[in-house]
Amino acid sequence: RAVHSVRDHPNHDRPLNGGMWGATNASRVHGRVKALARAFGDHDSYGADLTFLDHEIYPLVRDEVYAHDAYSCSKYPGSVPFPTKRLRTFQHVGQVFDERDRPRLDDIDSFMRGVLAPVACRRVPDWVYG
After folding, report:
1. In whole angstroms, what is the distance from residue 66 CA to residue 98 CA?
2. Which residues lie below 8 Å from residue 21, measured CB to CB, with a gap of 6+?
3. pTM of the predicted structure, to 2 decimals
4. Of 103, 99, 83, nearest to 117 (Cα)?
5. pLDDT for position 46
6. What share of the chain has pLDDT > 70, as a percent?
7. Which H, E and C letters describe the chain, residue by residue?
8. C-alpha closest to that of 114 among 130, 102, 103, 125
């Protein structure tokens, strides 16, 4: 597939996440992203990047996506279970760290800790947290 995406946090439940996808030269967006971004009306509001990906990019690449997904793999076509076992620290792709390189624990404590990955999204059945 020409586009790869990663979803390994319960809040990653969207087709593409900013900074967590990539495309090859064979994708339908090759050579078009810059023009699409310039033409997109909202460059400043919180979440505008996600809206851009949802409205402008995903419709073009929907059939080209191969996604490693730990929580919403049954929802998005082209998704497969996340390939590695979650660390006990609940680290995840796109995790936020502060200026002292400490993880923002609220993202883990409020949304991940104790949230079991659906069985369909587990590469190995006993990887209960993805």
Report:
1. 31
2. 3, 4, 5, 6, 53, 65
3. 0.90
4. 83
5. 95
6. 100
7. CCEEEEECCHHHCCCCCCCCEEECCCCCCCCCHHHHHHHCCCCCCCCHHHHHHHHHHHHHHHHHEEEEECCCCCCCCCEEEECCCCCCCCCCCCCCECCCCCECCHHHHCCCCCCCCCHHHECCCCCCCC
8. 130
User: What distances in angstroms separate CA 77 from CA 33, 101, 110, 121, one per listed residue?
Assistant: 22, 35, 27, 13
Give residues with Cβ within 8 angstroms of 4, minimum separation 6. 21, 22, 23, 65, 66, 67, 68
Q: How confident is the model at residue 130 (pLDDT cuts 50, 70, 90)?
A: confident
User: Which of 75, 117, 55, 74 lies closest to 92 in space, CA to CA?
Assistant: 117
Q: Which two tokens stand for residue 81?
A: 């279970």
Q: Would you say the C-alpha torsion 118, 14, 66, 44 has a positive or negative sign?
A: negative
